[in-house]
Amino acid sequence: MILHVENVTKQFGGLTAVDNVTFSLEGGEILGLIGPNGAGKTTLFNCINGVYTPTSGRVVFRDEDITGKRTYDIARRGMARTHQIVRPLNDLTVRENVIVGACYGREGLSLHAATEVAEDVIEFVGLTDRVEMLAGSLNVAQKKRLEMARALAANPYLLLLDEVLAGLNTSEVTSMLDTIRQIRDRGITIIMIEHIMHAIMNLSDRIIVLNYGEMIADGLPDEVAQNPQVIEAYLGDEDLAAKILEEERS
Amino acid sequence: MKRFTGLLLSVLAVIVLAVIPLISGKASTREAMFTILMAIALASSLNMLLGYTGYVSFGHIVFFGVGGYAGFYTLTVLGWNLWLSMLVGGATAALLAYLLGKSILRLRGAYFALATIGVNEAMRALVNNMDFLGGPIGMTMKFSVYNEYGGAANALWLVYWVLSGIALLVVIVSYLVKRSKFGLGLMAIREDEDAAEVMGVRAPSAKTWSYVLSAVFPGLIGMLFFFKNGNIEPGDAFRLHLSIELIVMVMLGGFGTVLGPVLGAGVYQQLRKLLLTSPVFKNIQLAVAGVLLLLIILFIPTGAVGWLRRRFPRLRRVLE
Amino acid sequence: MNLDVLIASAVDGLLIGFVYGVAAMGLTLIFGVMDVINLAHGPLIAIGMFGVYEIFTYVGMNPYLALIIVAVVGLAVGVLVYFVAVHRVIDAPPLSSLLSTFSVNMMIIGVGTAILTTSAYNVDFSLPSLDTGPITVTGTRLAAALIAVGVTALLYAFLYRTRSGKYIRAVANNRQAAELMGIPSTRILALAFGIGTMLAMTAGGLIATILPINILAGGTYELKSFVIVVLGGLGNPLGALVGGLILGLIEGLVPVFMKTTWVPVLEFGLFILILLVMPQGLFGRKES
Q: Which of C30, C31, C99 to mutate against chain B (most B CBs within 10 Å)?
């Protein structure tokens, strides 16, 4: 078991953003994390990778209790993450960005070794022709790929993807989904936050649904899609509910 | 050899400047070069914190002052020799930076900048009150001390060569850091500290070490400067305006590059000399510097070297 | 320890503390509205000082009336500085505005030192002292404090009772949202900067009525302003006033117990301590 999140709660003053969430994750799985906007998905990610310390509960990563550890310590233990709003290191080149990931990730490589790893990863995500460009000059889709490359260069056991598909057009989405499958095939476990339903339903082995911080479903994509509580949570967003029901019908 | 092309220009510049007085043989040239080389060394040191890590230290001169006082004390009161005293100066500055690193480096942006001003002013006020350091009058060195180094004239040349050596060292260290894994981590912090931490960069300790590195050389140089001066007092040692001028030099030349501070310091000092000797501009030298700074900030924020690197990407390898 | 001496020192300190507060209010207002630390603050205070001095000495006007002129000039100067040095870098990283305002600092000091040299000047003006039995309060000091309080009241009336004031508070709170609601943010920012400068110059003018002045003294008051602003909470004008009082009190009382030269050590020590322990100051920052 690669990750075990146990009764994690995160409160900010009076607001409970994550409410008693528990789930486990086996190595090699792709876990989808969905829920309406503001459900606490990114906050949950933040609790897992150390940006926030949970108000209560535990996070166990590869049999080690990492609750409350700093982000850099967790990163070095083999967890990498992308951000919902991309955070490129603007004044550094694409190559330099990825080298940072390789140097400071799980392997802690030297500059020389990291440069080689970076070349490979950049090729994998398809940014080879932009390798010398400053990260700040890329477009959104490219920045997302860069973010992914940085995370991959660290050779993580677990990869947290926060809405990597947002802002991409249809062909870019298909392309990204392929890439994600390839990442899984390399043996990396993935948790994905996504709003594009057909994508995440198709890709995930399992799905977790959050609503107002609480976990309201945990199961196979088909089960979750038919779960009345889930559908109700999304009823506020009619299109989404319609899509889910339609997927189910077809 | 290819690895060091970026270092070439900077090293060349320092060496050329350093040997000019040898050619002319005059003490006045040496003094002029001393001022420039000192500016280069101080600006380059500051650049390691400001340019690489992105933390703006407005009170950086505090390390110059603290090193100066510590070294001066061991030299004049304890009677230690110049070399040992220099090391004491550097070590004291480094220690202060380490302690500060643990405390004020937690602050971000403007808060950190203000804190560094506070530290400088607090240090100056503190030293002002310390009688064992001479209080407001400071300490004076007996002229006879120069005799231990071959007489005053000889001592001044000695100091000059040592400073040149330090300037060269700072430039080389600056380059090595920039090309190292450590330096890359610093620049990641500069670009986005939180994202860097998520990638595994241990920001708190990296920042502290960059602070220490940026403080050690001013500490050494401070001691050297006041030895040459013959006396030290709080007003001279902790002059806030000098700190700011260092920032101007770094910004003028281009922060985050090795050549930038070298160029910036050189140009700024020359400009300053020109203004001071011109009857028209003599009194408003500071005002002219202010206009210069404003123009840089508004129109070429990456400084001369930064601008050149963007304009001529092919030259990037040489303009490091 | 003479209680009278203690009270007299405390009162003296508090009175000038009000004036410090006004100066700090200018700094904190600008920070609160646009996240810019105005490093030209000190020289602007100095201009206020000399403004009152010059008008008093050469025109013969009552310094308190001269203060009004200085205030109006301060508003204009502030708007000018905004458009010259701040507007273009308002969204750039903080270092840019720190350096651009500092460049204005350098310009003012450079020109000022050339014209006025660094010698001290004195506004030879006095008011009758107030004698309340145990303690005597200098008339000018009391007047300065009262005016400072008045200025604070006017500022708050402006911020909370006028439309422009509301716009300023809106922009301070969330500039983007304010723009979306049709508030002309550039004009408002310029106005805020102008008011901040006006406060600084007014404080300078008030100081001129109490103490000797010189062009570099602005720097000292700038540093005091930093301490006060951090103490009171960056962005909070009332906090600045309270911070000013606290600082004034420290300055008044400390010399009774130890050498005056220890005052700066305490001030800056406190400054660093607050930054480390309670960076939001006593009154915290307004939510952004």
A: C99
